[in-house]
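Sequence only, no structure available. Ideas?
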Amino acid sequence: MERNLIQIYNSLTRKKEEFISLEAGSVKMYACGPTVYNYFHIGNARTFLFFDVVRKYLEYRGYDVTYVQNITDIDDKIINQSIQEGIPATDVAAKYIEAFLKDTAKLGLTPPTHQPLATKYIGQMIKLIRELEIAGFAYEVNGDVYFSVNKSSEYGRLSGRKTEEQKVGARVDKNTDKQNPADFTLWKRSKPGEPKWKSPWGEGRPGWHTECVVMSRDLLGATFDIHGGAIDLLFPHHENELAQANALQTKPMVNYWMHGGFLNMRGEKMSKSLDNFLLTRDVFEKFDAETIRTFFLSKHYRSPIEYSPELLEEAKVAVNNFYDALQDIRYLDFAQSETVVTDSADEYKRKFQEMMDDDFNTAKAMSVLFDLSRKIKNQRDFSVEERQGFALILVKFGKVLGFFSDIQARLAVTGLTDPLMKILIDLRAALKAEKNFVMADMIREKLSKTGIELRDKKEGTTWSFRE
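Reply:
I predicted one. Tokens follow.
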């Protein structure tokens, strides 16, 4: 086991704990992925993006991270979508898996170490359900198999919910076959025309809560370091995962449970079921990946966020400020280590790690990046060498948070465009001085359509790329 200064808020104990990895120098981490029945919405993107940052930061701290993110490619929602689209459920899953991979790549997420499909693990799921049945934790009724929550002495510990408090509703199905309304499905018998697999209980398919147990055990072992997801997965999904694992082993399934807050829309959780969502690919039409990343990371991951186009616009300005700061020193080799580091820049390094070590507080870590950006622009108080040191630190930390993946290309284009933009900005200023505002506005509008944004300030007009 390895000791360090990283603190993680553990949903199981409801407090921050020092992170101690099971194996020195390595971390085994699982975060729940999508159910591929549609394009994922921007609220889902927050969760996917955050755990990508957790993975990146742990790697920055020197850990060898094995990161698993599953893909649920069989589910009632997928079957319903196949009926709606008039295509087989397998085609629905394939269509939205492709879209998911494309959109997460555009979002700047590093592919997980493993990204297993639920349908590739059906045999292992059947085996696990059978083990639960033999152990007395599961029972079969007319081809359906349920987990008996009354047999699990610690059921509800993760979510804080007591079994007797769980009434029929949004999270507990009404089903007269169940011995207890809170019992959850392990195996569901198939209806005519639905995807199905053979099992000891007849043809059917596994329940959602069994999938992650099987895949995590196979790829990470019976006990692993971190299990994460959005807060709505705390119950019932993660509670039900934990119940199955606890029924089959005495050692803990997971040492640290992490859950991210909601992205709200008009005060309510963004959700397809509430029909108050925006697809990530639609948000991309107005805002680039780094703007979205800034919007999310400027808030602590456990805090809710209200979706706000205005705040996204502010995030876009913040991203542009990063590149504006780096423009004057764009020919610096950002792939090198910070060979020129002032004592002050080294202090920023300490601050950045201190913030991220405190339960991945990206909001405070982002403030370190903003301060560095201002230092780079400050030609009056700092030498070129000092500003270069700040720039190297900014880019290094920015990459830990998922920024600057294409910095050389973006700044190289900026270098070629600078002289031309100066001509256009001077021309526009002359037109405005002549009160020819129609032509001045036309220049601005034409540039905007090509992805270049002008910003008028007291000290003059600046420009930046808008992806």
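The chain has three domains: 2-133+149-155+208-269, 309-405, 413-465.
Hope that gets you unstuck.
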